[in-house]
Amino acid sequence: MRLDDLRAVIRTAHDSGTALRLRGGGSKDFYGGMLAGEVFDVAAYRGIVAYEPSELYITARCGTPLAEIEAVLAEQGQMLAFEPPHFGAATIGGCVAAGLAGPRRQQAGAVRDFVLGAKLIDGTGQVLDFGGQVMKNVAGYDVSRLLAGSLGTLGLIAQLTLKVLPRPVAEATLCFALDEAEAIARLNAWGGQPLPVSGSFWAAGQLFLRLSGARAAVDAACTRLGGEKLEAAGAFWLAVREQTHPAFTGQLLWRLALPSTTVPLAIDGLRAVEWGGGLRWYAGDVSPAVLREVAQRAGGHAVLYRAPESQRCLEGAFAPLSPALLGVHRRLKNIFDPQGILNPGRLYAEL
Amino acid sequence: METAETSFLTDRAGLAARLGAILPAHCLLLDEEELRPYECDGLTAYRELPMAVCLPENENQVIAILSTCHQLGVPVVARGAGTGLSGGAMPHAQGVVLSLARFNKILRLDPLARLASVQPGVRNLAVSEAAAPHGLYYAPDPSSQIACTLGGNVAENSGGVHCLKYGLTVHNILRLRVVSIEGEVFEIGSEAPDAPGYDLLALLIGSEGMLGVVTEVTVKLVPRPELAQVVMASFDEVGKAGEAVAAIIAAGIIPAGLEMMDQPATAAVEPYVKAGYDLEAAAILLCESDGTPEEVAEEIARVRAVLMAAGAREIRVSQSEAERLRFWAGRKAAFPAIGRISPDYYCMDGTIPRKRLAEMLAAIVGMEAKYGLRCANVFHAGDGNLHPLIMYDAAQPGEWARAEAFGAEILELSVRLGGSITGEHGVGIEKINQMCVQYKSPELQAFHRIKAAFDEKGLLNPGKAVPSLHRCAEYGQMHVHHGALKFPELERF
Q1: A176 DSSP β-pair partners
Q2: pTM of the entire predicted model
Q3: Shortest CA distance to B193 belongs to which of A108, A172, A263, A225?
Q4: Do A188 and B112 touch (CB under 8 A)?
Q5: Which CATH number belongs to the domain containing residue B255 in this structure?
Q6: How many CB pairs under 8 A join A and B?
Q7: Is the ipTM of this complex over 0.90?
Q8: pLDDT, block means (10 residues), chain A with 351 residues
Q9: Is A77 within 8 Å of B252 when comparing Cβ atoms?
Q10: Which domain holds residue B268?
């Protein structure tokens, strides 16, 4: 598959007004709003285009599996620091389009923080190049970062350049028996100290804290913090990243993003706390209106993360935008996809 | 000078009357002598006198000023401390300067949540000073941090010497409150992660005052490392220093700062700052390590080994905080030091892949001969961001034009080497022509449409940051690259 083939499909769809549902590995069909349009499978547009370990970047076509990229990076002792979930066959294009990061998110940054450049095919079939390979580049608006989390609604992200980082030399995981409130307080207090924290996960009265960095720094932090050392920590964090940990089971899962210091919410169904208190998972039969309102009042927002598609369409997967912001979204969508053929309704029904 | 770009014709008396109805007398400047200090920013070679300067004291006044200018079709240029180096805050002759200087309050500092909400006129360093008692600081530290404001940092996506490890402004902002040109207020980002919808923070940060006026900034604060130490290494050849930079990164080390200065730069700085630089060396590297004492000791040992292997002729490690600050003092004083040995200097801001450093430096030596001007080089070497300082004398006829051409050639070479025309200073008015080299017309058109999505009439900072396609067509006619004519779809005139 060549870039021109991708362009041709989008151009044809544009001319005939046919909606397309962009698809990489198909691992995140559960995520977002409506799944509309003819499936346009771009997994065959794959391969690493450039990788320069000493320049800290990798460029790959959108269909390249995350597993392939991470294997190549690991050979050079490097990684995607935002620790994205694979959910099976995730591709780099889908990973950036969804903008979902893993346990290292709070310390290392979000997906968008690592996007350096992107080749975009817009909704008219035009190829646009934004950003580049260098870490610092303030020429022009930063469209490549804007694409992270846009769920394919602004165009097909055909190729990406991402910043990569060295893997930490040492890693250890500590475990503490704490209730939710204590865990949240403790995580925020630690967050203000120069500790090499690289991930946190609380569920069912147990807080797991991952430390990464220089050997000496990790050892010193372990001594200082106490707790119990978790063996086989690699498998544990993999289960958190991939959401195969039992805390994530169930038909209905809500993802609440909150200011990390938010005290425990007066809502039933809490399953897990991540990202130093900034991310909290709720499951079961919780009223969407109540959840959304509570999250908003706390200064955050709620995502209907896993639910039947019909319910995601009905409730909206993401928290509604203010009229002013929705206006900006509509105008941006119109720039890149004037016919509205790319992933319509996947982010918001209005886009 | 400008063709086919929007032109404005403002009724001075009418504008003054409308602004006078919004602002108290001490918030509005209209006389030429009062306007004069605002005619340029840190790039003094470009000057323009605005029709009025507004110094609002609250958001309602900002809203009223913007909606009035929107109604009257008057250009608005927002301004922080005016320390920018690309002419981004240069006024428009038919417009208003909107100074946020009086928006200078830290509204909230939450040490537990590690964040601060500040007004845009708060100085960068003031945030770190306020956070210091809690063991926290705001990471981006542009060298003008004692004067530059957060609002300006947001507009330019400012970097600094520590952004290799701690990121740029875009990585350290949580939320912005913005007033649109129509006077509508909206908030983007949030104190919670991953705000819903498009990542408008990424779009607004670095947008050079083209999309909206920021009235509140929420920044992330990070714990101050327990210890920082800097290694200073000197090299016989600039190329070896460049290779040492790549070798440090390749060894899996992300230093807190990694800076390089060439001999002309150290020679200018040393008599002024007495930092103890090796003046025999062709180039020196400063490599900072921070973290816990154990971490720093481990990293410094690794850095030292890499530098030895890369052929360093001398290596010194700061033994006290005073010595660390002295090593840095020379780097941070590089610009004023050049100002002491040359009547004027012109600072460039290209970014290139690290491995092309030696190539770029050799090319700059060639350009010094070509343009008959000297150039000292300081780099944020770790992220490939160059600051060549071209020395000239504005009083000598023709020297500024040569300096400008010299600078343009460096920027265009940066693009050819796989980099960018600006790493952290912004395009402003200064690099508007080089944007035509970095981007093709579809991308520039997309930028114009993004601008229009926020500012349909094109009133916010007109003529900056993104060139018109006609300007590029004219510039492309002067500079045909690789035999290919850019913007072939446009008429030439």
Answers
A1: A207
A2: 0.96
A3: A108
A4: yes
A5: 3.30.70.2190
A6: 254
A7: yes
A8: 97 98 97 96 98 95 98 97 97 98 97 98 98 93 98 98 96 98 98 95 98 92 96 97 96 96 95 98 90 96 95 94 96 98 97 95
A9: yes
A10: 227-335
